[in-house]
Amino acid sequence: MGKVAVAFAAAAVVAACSVAALMVGRRMKSRRKWRTVVEILKELEDACDTPVGRLRQVVDAMAVEMHAGLASEGGSKLKMLLTFVDDLPNGTEKGTYYALHLGGTYFRILRVHLGGQRSYLDVQDVERHPIPSHLMNSTSEVLFNFLAFSLERFIEKEGNGSSSQGVKRELAFTFSFPVKHTSISSGVLIKWTKGFEISEMVGKDIAECLQGALNRRGLDMHVAALVNDTVGALSLGYYHDPDTVVAVVFGTGSNACYLERTDAIIKCQGLLTTSGSMVVNMEWGNFWSSHLPRTSYDIDLDAESSNSNDMGFEKMISGMYLGDIVRRVILRMSQESDVFGPTSSVLSEPYLLRTNSVSVMHEDDTPELQEVARILKDLGVADVPLKVRKLVVKICDVVTRRAGRLAAAGIAGILKKIGRDGSGGITSGRSRNEIQMQKRTVVAVEGGLYMNYTMFREYMEEALVEILGEEVSQYVVVKAMEDGSSIGSALLVASLQSS
Ligand code: BGC
After folding, report:
1. Which residue of 55, 192, 237, 413 could cross-link 196, Cys pair, CB 3.0 to 4.6 Å?
2. Out of 176, 235, 423, 486, which one is annotated catalytic?
3. Is the minimum distance from the CB of 295 to ligand 1 under 6 angstroms?
4. Smallest Cα–Cα separation from 453: which of 408, 411, 406, 400?
């Protein structure tokens, strides 16, 4: 071999070696990056872990906080608000009633016609519209004028054939925010939640604001009740099944109410009702306990929210926030590795990933996870390999599993407080006999998160059985109430008229 040929051969060997070294280096680098995301995922899984022992601690904390909130005003982060609802609809109601429901994402208007028998409940003309986002930080006048205008249009559509023509229309206002009631039809806004920020409304009587707007438009409608959405759901649940004593909403926000004995509401000494009980709106979104598994993502989400240090439980379990927790995890992974490709600024936008997209990704059963790919593309993350899409599904699973299991612990906490969890409850003035007899207990549940996100629902129901045990669980029935908060509020107005 000549000198030139040797030199060529040597150069070729050197080149081949450097290409190989480069490839090995790249592979090692990419493996290191992949290891980074796997570590982030592992860290998330550990921080979100909810073994049944921990859930039981949350159950106990919930029951204890309920007790404290009932004992004194400001005694707990749980406000345990009086609703002045002491009698729930029983099926004998008659007539036509209206409901207007201002939720977190939607507002609904409907009419119900009742024929005096449980089986004769006719829900008519349900209208459901997204709340225009500019209203959430407008003024009380703008908000209530909008609601009155929407009601006016609804009524106009009734035409001449309506049975309620010429009669003053009785309206339930389902208002899904914390209210301090002075009666069933009046109460002031304590604070906004779920991203609403009309500060001048805090402290104002909500029913009065709506009535004023209706009067200004010349509408012959009377705001007969101001009802929290949970109380609406409880009313519909009770109407169909008198064993319903608890109602929970898992929607944009989350909350629960239940039927409490008046003698257990210690902060209102001498509270007398004919039924001996009253529905208490817990406002459980604000529940807090050191046993809740909190991650750095929760801390950042809270700090950057419009209501930081508030509604800690809601921020872990409700529809407004689950998507944003998932987004934050993906963002961190994309910043610390390149598995998501170049970091997209879109991904940094708060609340861009909605919880319904999380549910679509989580439940994507296409072989190549095409739905995940589509949603990631909308977040500015295009063309990621299948293993990265699988990683995203796993993140959704971890976040939603924690939410579902904590939600179950919340429900079990209420059951414990009222002596329906089979454990004997905590001291609440109940007699021993009452505690030991396991009664059938129905929990009415509603809200988009529960209704539309199967995995959330399954995790919640599974954890409830895990916490309560097979035997006690047989007595606890979880019932979905579609549109329960609106329909139930109308039923409540009907029951007020007939009592
Ligand atoms: C509100 C509650 C409401 C719940 C569900 C929370 O943000 O504070 O009053 O019941 O959302 O809509």
Report:
1. 192
2. 176
3. no
4. 400
CA distance linking residue 81 with residue 79, whole number of Å = 5
Residue nearest to atom 8 of ligand 1 (CA): 177
Q: What is the pLDDT of residues 392-417, one digit of tens each?
A: 999 999 999 999 999 999 999 999 99
Judge if the beta carbon of residue 235 lies within 6 A of ligand 1. no
108 in catalytic set:
yes
Ligand 1 contact, 323 CB (< 6 A): no
102-122: pLDDT as tens digits: 998 999 999 999 999 887 889
Report the candidate in 380, 302, 310, 308 with the shortest Cα–Cα distance to residue 341: 380
Q: Give the amino acid at 291.
A: H
Name which residue sits closest to atom 3 of ligand 1, judged by CA: 176
- Check: pTM over 0.85? Answer yes or no: yes
Active site residue 176: yes
Of ligand 1's atoms, which has the minimum distance to the CA of residue 103?
12
Does 255 sit in the ligand 1 pocket, CB within 6 Å?
yes
446 versus 423: the higher-pLDDT residue is 446
Distance of CA 314 from the midpoint of ligand 1 (Å): 9
- pLDDT over threshold 90, residue 54: yes
Reported as a single tens digit per residue, the pLDDT across 290-317 is 999 999 999 999 999 999 999 999 999 9
